[in-house]
Amino acid sequence: MSSAAPPQALPPLYGAERWVATISVSLATFMNVLDSSVANVSIPAIAGDLGVSPAQGTWVITSFAVANAISMPLTGWLAMRFGAVRVFLVSTLLFVAASWLCGLAPTIEALVGFRVLQGLVAGPMIPLSQTLLLSVYPPALAGLATALFGMTVLVAPVVGPLLGGWITDHIAWPWIFYINVPIGLAAALLTWHLFRARQTAPRRIPLDRIGLGLLVLWVGAMQLMLDKGKELDWFASVEIVALALTAVVGFAFFLVWELGAAHPVVDLRLFARRNFLVGTLALSVAYGLVFGNVVLLPLWLQQYMGYTATWAGLAMAPVGLLAILLSPWVGHNVGRIDPRWLATTAFLGFAAVMWMRTLFSTQADFETILLPTLLQGIAMAFFFIPLQAIAYAGLAPARMPSATGLNNFVRITAGAVGTSVFTTLWDSRASLHHAQLAEHVNPANPAAMQALAQLRAAGYTQEQALAQINRLIDQQAFTLAANDLFWLSSMLFVALVLLVWFSGRRQGPMLAVEGGAH
User: Fold this and answer.
1) What's the mean pLDDT in 220-249?
2) What is the pTM assigned to this prediction?
3) Could you tell me the residue ranges of all domains in the chain?
4) I want to staple 477 with a disulfide (CB 3.0 to 4.6 A). Which of 123, 125, 316, 430 is the partner?
């Protein structure tokens, strides 16, 4: 698995040309990362418009993430076979076309299908954009190039919820996808103008087709099982049992094949290195928890707190503000300070933020909801760079492309799994809380009888009054269920502190890493 080997040494660009080149590849990166977060606050609107439940609406998020993760192993092969610049341009243009189709989708099935296409063509864009960016800077300024790249992927999650919410409320949800068209075309045009003379010569190299096929099989089956499990009553369904067996058997065959392949699509031997195993596992579990919460919070705000998509976006947006301010300091000091201490700061920060959210109630005001989101930016700043420094510690430069590709694949897959698991657990815990709360609505409860009497006095029929009470119970049940998941997340982040200390002290020079909350 590879994130594309660097192209042959080419002379750097200078002055205006270099800044335009930076803007061109950053636009493509921005567009790609934006699509990971822009739909989060739009899920209720999309689900309502297409006639499905919000839980089914989250397929719009998970389908993109899974397809993106699956296609990433092909990046290195494609770049060497066809040239990095050509692959980047084709991926960007296909991403634009897929975005347009997403906006036109008339059904949830069509939208999910187009999001899969969008995720598949998006796979090479992030790693190749950094490869191209580094190629136009002299080695002495490689740190600046990496910092600029990191800033792009930190700004996009801030803008995504704001832009998605505003577009959904004031225009229509399809425009969260149409907005990619002018951005993508501008990025492609500028990239072609500046990079066409920097195309690397194509080379014929073998592709692990069987490994890739097994990867698609087990990851696809696993995600379908997670997405459709609740709808089909989990293992009471023959379809879910079949998907689970396919995922398990496919994964077993995948492991055996990849460990014996001469040119594996995923270099699993990297997991024999303790630091890579611990760093990748900690990063991926944490990313799954963060991404699951990022999807859960706007769903709760819009469905049970009365927020519009715009206000839900405003509540989510500040997550990147402190991250943008603190990330340069972390990047500058990760070579001086033991990255395990920096990662510990991140996990304890996330644990504190999730604990603050366990105190949310149906009476929580905007400032109460906003504060943990703002503080989460501190944890985000200490998150990616130290954990990637741990994962890549001591790796030979020749193994870095495979390592960064595998690390990103596991992380993005964990994000999709986290989304599915969180939405499923949220519904499950809400059903439990609803049943417990509903038991108190009976003639023996004076408060419940008084509430019903007041509703009847206000002109409600008995059925309407009971429906209103049920709505209030729903609001409380889903709020309590969200609190349960915030508490679970907090405890898991504390456990990750222990995990990260199983890694060894970093040895060897600090290598440039691919940052970003993609």
Assistant:
1) 85
2) 0.81
3) 1-206, 208-264, 270-518
4) 430
Tell the burial category of 56 from Cβ atoms under 10 Å away from its Cβ (0-12, 13-18, 19+).
buried
Token pair, residue 399, equals 């193994």
Q: What is the pLDDT, as a whole number, of residue 496? A: 96
Contacts of 458 (CB under 8 A, 6+ apart): none
Query: For the chain, what's the residue count?
Result: 518
CB 320 within 8 A of CB 157: yes
What residues contact 318, with CB distance under 8 A and at least 6 apart?
A: 158, 370, 373, 374, 377
Among the listed residues 306, 304, 308, the one whose alpha carbon sits nearest the alpha carbon of residue 434: 304
CA distance 211 to 1: 10
Concatenated DSSP letters of 450-498 = HHHHHHHHTT--HHHHHHHHHHHHHHHHHHHHHHHHHHHHHHHHHHHHH
CA 35 vs CA 38, 124, 384, 458, 518: distances in Å: 5, 15, 19, 46, 9
pLDDT digit string, tens, across residues 199-214: 777 777 788 889 889 9
Report d(CA 348, CA 351) in Å as an integer: 5
- Name residue 265's amino acid: V
Residue 259: CB atoms within 10 A of its CB come to 12
Cβ distance 30 to 516 under 8 Å? no
**DSSP designation for 270:** G
CATH superfamily of 270-518: MFS general substrate transporter like domains (1.20.1250.20)
- Could you tell me how far CA 43 lies from the centroid of its own chain? 15
CATH C-level class of 1-206: mainly alpha
Q: 3-class SS at 505?
A: coil
Query: In angstroms, what CA-CA distances link 129 with 23, 87, 195, 506, 514?
Result: 11, 10, 11, 27, 11
3-state secondary structure of 86: helix
